[in-house]
Description:
Blueprint: H1 2-30, H2 41-64, H3 69-73, E1 76-80, H4 88-102, H5 105-114, H6 119-138, H7 145-150, E2 152-156
Antiparallel strand pairs: 1-2
Helix pairs in contact: 1-2, 2-4, 4-6, 5-6
Amino acid sequence: MFAFLYELLLLIAVVLLAEGLFQGVFQLITKLPVTAMSDDLIVRALNFVWIMGVAFAYFAWCWRGGQTLAMRTWRICLVKADGQPLGWREVALRFAVGGVCMLPCAPFWVLARHHADLRIVAWLLTALFFLPFLWALFDRERRFLHDRLAGTQLLIAPPRSDV
Length: 163
């Protein structure tokens, strides 16, 4: 869980840098203020695709190497179920399942604060958020849902010997 929270902090930094780049390019191209971005559905959709692409690139680069910075800190290694390094299929599937489970939770809670009728949806999405963690409690190999579906597993990495 600590690795997950550390990963979240790192991902926030990556997303903030990517968003700053997107907004800077948007202003250079359109000469409009950043507030104009929220008025255009196409720009918002492009922004979302850009952020998801950057997040995918970050995780794909790290997972194909076996560890993100947070995983390295906590000595966790990500491999295929047979112990081999991850391929693009496993990376994409793990990212997609994790995204579907975890991504919608926060925005719906923001909306639910202003629209009481969305609270039930927010609670259901919170349950979806915790589904991969609950899955690991009942999985015979203690794998998360996204690891089970992608055919990956987390292992404890041996200590590094910095000579």
